Amino acid sequence: MKTIKNKIYTLPKGTYSERATKKFLTYLNGNFEIKYCNSIYDVFENVDNSGFGVVPIENSIEGSVSLTQDLLLQFREVNIVGELAMDIHHNLIGYDKNKIETIVSHPQALAQCREYIKKHGWSVKAVESTSEAVKLVAESSNEKLGAIGSKDSAKQFGLKILEENIEDYKNNKTRFILIGKSALSFKTCPNRYKVSIVFELKEDKPGALYHILKEFAERKINLTRIESRPSKKRLGTYIFYIDFEDPGKNLKETLESLKEQTTFIYVLGRYPVLL
Ligand SMILES: O=C(O)C(=O)C[C@]1(C(=O)O)C=C[C@@H](O)C=C1
């Protein structure tokens, strides 16, 4: 009998997102086949058709991955179904450190190594993922190029690791989310759940955001993140993303209390936080 495999989309082989995907799989029941996409946008587009996906959402040095934030709103049927954080250690990859003039990588990785790059006076070039950067450097055979990426990607494309742990701050971590349109079954029952919402305030008036936050404070609900993004309608207008610890049976009533003060409010997911 043929076993049915669920598809799980992520960034290319050798990316940190691929490693996060493999870590998610250790928690999941069922059969999965990893499918590789060139960009975060492609992951969302595929998941909007079927299957699941893994994308980065926030980094401890550089903050939000704004594209992921925006796509969670754009693809309204795609929800967050799980989350995990992973240590990120970047490597300088290429031929000869002394000959490098330009560094290629994903914008998040370039930003996490900004000081290091500046110290060496290198110029930068952004590509869709760290493994695409390593591939580009390998295929160019150009000693003036260096890439920032994972050890796996250096191995995959047969390049040397010229220096390890080049991130500007130790303790560099990225949070990844598992996305999908349906629920998943976890091997063990996770004990911590979070909820993510996005909303737009009805009125731009003193205390508008305060009144939203008050609803959480009065119910003793712990917020874990608050972020604003441009509404894209007009300069100076924003939408807000809030993550909070799942209040269990109080969730419905908490969300109800916010409805009156917002033009829209969507739940992006109620999901387990995996270790
Ligand atoms: O390009 C990769 O390797 C990715 O998985 C993307 C990504 C990101 O966008 O944050 C993932 C983790 C690191 O923070 C750097 C890059």
UniProtKB/TrEMBL annotation:
Its EC number is 4.2.1.51. Pathway: Amino-acid biosynthesis; L-phenylalanine biosynthesis; phenylpyruvate from prephenate: step 1/1. Residues 6-181 form the Prephenate dehydratase domain. Keywords: Amino-acid biosynthesis, Aromatic amino acid biosynthesis, Lyase, Phenylalanine biosynthesis. InterPro entries: ACT-like_dom_sf, ACT_dom, Preph_deHydtase, Preph_deHydtase_CS. GO terms for cellular component: cytoplasm. It catalyses: prephenate + H(+) = 3-phenylpyruvate + CO2 + H2O. Residues 197-272 form the ACT domain. This is prephenate dehydratase. It comes from Methanocaldococcus vulcanius (strain ATCC 700851 / DSM 12094 / M7) (Methanococcus vulcanius).
